[in-house]
Each structure stands twice: as C-alpha cells, then as structure tokens.
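Ticket #4471: complex job returned nothing on first submit. Input attached below:
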Amino acid sequence: SAPVVAFVNEKGGVAKTTSCVNLAAALAQRGHRVLCVDLDPQANATTAFGISVDQAIEREAHCLLTMPRFPLERAITQTGIEGLDLVPGSARLADCDKALVMEVGREGRLRGKLREFYRSVIADKYDAVLVDCPPSLDLLTINALTAATHMVVPVTTKFYALKGIALLGDIVATLHEQLGASVKLLGILVTMFDKNTALDVTIYRLLKEKVEREFGNYVFSTIVTRSVVVSEAEAGGLPVLLREPESPAAGAYSSFADEVVRRLGAH
Amino acid sequence: SAPVVAFVNEKGGVAKTTSCVNLAAALAQRGHRVLCVDLDPQANATTAFGISVDQAIEREAHCLLTMPRFPLERAITQTGIEGLDLVPGSARLADCDKALVMEVGREGRLRGKLREFYRSVIADKYDAVLVDCPPSLDLLTINALTAATHMVVPVTTKFYALKGIALLGDIVATLHEQLGASVKLLGILVTMFDKNTALDVTIYRLLKEKVEREFGNYVFSTIVTRSVVVSEAEAGGLPVLLREPESPAAGAYSSFADEVVRRLGAH
Ligand SMILES: Nc1ncnc2c1ncn2[C@@H]1O[C@H](COP(=O)(O)OP(=O)(O)OP(=O)(O)O)[C@@H](O)[C@H]1O
Ligand SMILES: Nc1ncnc2c1ncn2[C@@H]1O[C@H](COP(=O)(O)OP(=O)(O)OP(=O)(O)O)[C@@H](O)[C@H]1O
Ligand SMILES: [Mg+2]
Ligand SMILES: [Mg+2]
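Support reply: We reran it on our side without changes. The output follows.
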C-alpha cells in the first residue's frame, strides 16, 4: 500500500501542521492523490484547508479511532483542492485516550483502518497518506507512528527544539520493540530559519552534526525560512504553496516535496 | 495559602515556558519566594534554569503525581537563584495518564500535595507557585488547572493561536462543574509580537476585541515583543530577565510581573 508519513515532534509550534499541509498541496500539484489525516485536537490542518470543524462532527478522525466499525471512507472529506482529501480533526480527539483506555490494541486503530481501506474494493486509492500530529507523544501520536511507514520531524533552530531530537531515537526503538511498528525516519526538516540570526546558524550546524553522528544523513537539504506569508495564508484557508506560489516559502515546500519523493523512492 | 498560577495553552510554541520562568525570576527579584513546578514531559522549564533532568530522577514532578506518599518537599530543588525553587519535570511525566488511569481523584494529585505541604510545619512557605504546562489539555494540564487559583494564557498573534482561545471558556467551565476547581483567568499575555508585521497588529486588535466581548478586560497591557535574546538565554540556563536585564524582553517580563502582582492583589 501507499507510504504513510507522520509529522511528529513533541515540541510545540515547530511547523508540523504547516509542513504537512504544504507537502500535501505540493504532492497534489504534481498529480499525486493525497489523503491528509488531522490527528490534532486543535484541528489546525483542518482549518488550514478552510474546512469548518463543526461541519465534520460525526465524520472525523475521532470516530475513526474510537468506533470499531467506522470505515475510513466515511471520514474522508473534500478540500476543494484537486487530488487532495482530508480526514478532519476535532477537539474530541483529546478524549481518545480515555475512550480507548481498556481497549486491547488501542495503539493500532489507525493502522487497522488504513489496512481495511486498502483491502476494500474502493478503486481510486491514494498515492500517499500524510498524518498531522499534536505536540505530544500520547495515544494520538502513537497511533500515527504505528500506522506510519515514515516520519518527518520538523524542527526550529532553537535550544529547546534541539533537545527534543535526542529522545527521538529512543521513541522509535520502543515503538519497534513493543508495538511491532516499522516506522522509519524519513528526515528532519528545519523550519522558521533566519539566516541572519547567529543563533539559528549555530544551532543548525550543531543539529546537523548531531543528527549525522547519531542517525546518518537525515537532515533535509531544504530549509524553510521564516516568513510572515506563511502565517497570513492560514487565515485564508489555503496552504502558502497554493496561496503565494512565488513566495520563498512555497519554493521551499516545493523542493521539500521533491526530496520527499526521492527519499520515498529510495526506501 | 499562596496563589498558584498555571501557564496554559494547548497551542504549542506560544512562550508558556518562557513566560513562566521569567515571571518566576521577576517575582524572586522583588524579594518574593517562588516555587516553579515543571509539568511538561519536555522539561523545558527545568532546562531553562540550567538544571539537568537526569540528576533529578526519583525526585521530580512524576513522583509527586504518581506516588501517594511522596511529599512535595522531596521534589523541590534549588535553582541557584535567590528565592526561586523548582520541582523538575522529566520525560516520565508522559506516563502519568497511564499510571493513574484507575485512580479515583487522579485530577487532584497536585492540588492534594500542595495542600499537604501548606498544612505541614515547614516554616518558609512560598509566596507564589507557578506551574508550566505541556501544549495539551491532558491529565497533566488538568492537574495544574485543578491545583491552580489562577491561569495565564500566553498567545501569539497568529491565526491558529486565536482559534485556541475560543475553547478556553468551555474548558474552565467544565473544570468548575466537574472537578470543583475554582481556577480564574488571570489574563492573556501576547508574546513574540512584532509591531512591524501587519498580521500581528491585526490579530492583536481582533484578539483584544474578542476577549473583551467574551471575558472582559483580560488581555495584559504588557506585550512581549519577538527578540532573539530570549532564545539565546535558553542555552545559558538563565531566564532572559536575569541574563539580559537591560533587554526589551526583560523589561516586558518585569512589567508583566507588576501587572500580575496587581491583578492577584485585586482578586
Ligand atoms: N516558515 C514560517 N515562517 C513564519 N512563520 C511560520 C512558518 N512556519 C510556521 N509558522 C508559524 O508558526 C506557528 C506554528 O506553526 P504550526 O502551527 O504549523 O506548528 P505546529 O508544530 O503544528 O504547532 P503545534 O505544536 O501547536 O501543533 C504558526 O503560527 C505559523 O503561522
Ligand atoms: N519573545 C520572544 N522572542 C523570540 N522568541 C521567543 C520569545 N519567546 C519565546 N521564544 C522562542 O519561541 C520558542 C517557543 O517558546 P516556549 O518554548 O517558551 O513556548 P511553549 O509554549 O512553552 O512551547 P511548548 O508548547 O512546546 O511547551 C522557543 O524556542 C523560544 O526561544
Ligand atoms: Mg500543529
Ligand atoms: Mg513549554
């Protein structure tokens, strides 16, 4: 079946959502069929496509994870962008931990639904599934990592963000041992970078050295620079790649998509 | 007993930790005795004071919440700053949800430990307790809000951050009804503001109007502007207020402290 890429980082505000929705838009622009799954109770990926969270209630990610007989196709909604569909998020996702606490295999709910979907007769499947995660390592993120074939870790070049990376290796190892997950690190994407800030340049160098020493050549060569155009696009319900296609941020997310396609091809 | 102020926002990366540790430093500078509690599995507040998370294991916030007979004073560590102590955080905090799932009253663990502490004979109590929360509304944040007398909500002037505020009223109402919590909104603090960015200015105006309409005059008049000095201080293990006392950010956090003291006095 298709690659499933989770956008994960316990650190908040590092552009997980921004990177997920812009990669989805870039892949759709290249003619791929993409499904975006919003597993964040804040439902920012849903908002990023201009979709109202209230309209999606009873047919969103929460139903998928908590209702055993709720098939994936019932939670899929159109984004209005050719080739790009979405499973909306909602605040109710925050209740999943409690709702599934006694359930065996609760970590594998999303994986199960994706497998069912691929086994069913539905013809036009997706070329890629992208999953946006909340800033935590809770049941929602574990569900994403158990279902995922790959993960992308967006980071900012700040001190706290650097510390978050150290834990990453442990988490992936635990998932493999305990849940039989096979998620691979696809790469680390540096976002909100300002080349005129000495701290950003220094942390970038430290990050690259640390990652290469511990994991290998996993830092994407694309760097997404800080630019207000990205935040302005959020209010308009369209990823910056589509709203401001000539902007440096759109260019960065476009070359990020090229790198992702190359890396997925190589795995 | 003393005011307990929780720094809360489900949205990630809005300067919860930065605001909590700098308020703690500002209050300590004015001669108050302050206890900072780090309830975030990322333990950024612990790092902000240059304390190694590994040295605190077996005497940190996780023990406080999961071990019934573990008293608060065993988890308290010095920060090296006169009048400012810390209960360190650690990655194990992420397990509290699972560890406490069958426990009755699991939301009130922190409140219980603070009450015990105040009832005990220990002479030099604290004038204020500040609690840093993770970017979620999980059991850790619920513990903080159940123990808190007040909460501060840091926000950035971005579209997603604005949407997060709407949920706030519902959350506080639920806490009051279901858990008998009495937490009051102390205020909303605008952080990482750039007055030269039209989006920031527009969102600030919208935020202020929305908050005044729905809650009243709760937006702090202090605005913390974006400045790299804040991020530079993180690597040095000292809040920016102490590391760069002449910086605009230090000035902002100092006037924020004045507003907090005034508002606490009025409640
Ligand atoms: N390249 C960029 N330049 C400027 N601002 C950016 C950029 N990318 C993201 N942002 C802004 O940073 C903030 C955080 O981005 P985003 O919400 O995508 O992060 P996140 O990691 O998904 O956050 P959370 O942890 O809350 O889920 C948003 O307000 C967004 O507008
Ligand atoms: N006034 C400021 N100017 C510039 N950068 C800032 C400012 N305040 C905070 N930052 C930076 O923004 C990032 C987020 O800040 P911080 O970690 O305090 O937010 P948080 O809300 O605690 O994040 P999380 O949701 O992950 O707990 C940090 O890298 C910090 O250096
Ligand atoms: Mg997000
Ligand atoms: Mg924090």
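The two ends of chain B are 14 Å apart (CA to CA). Closing as resolved unless it happens again.
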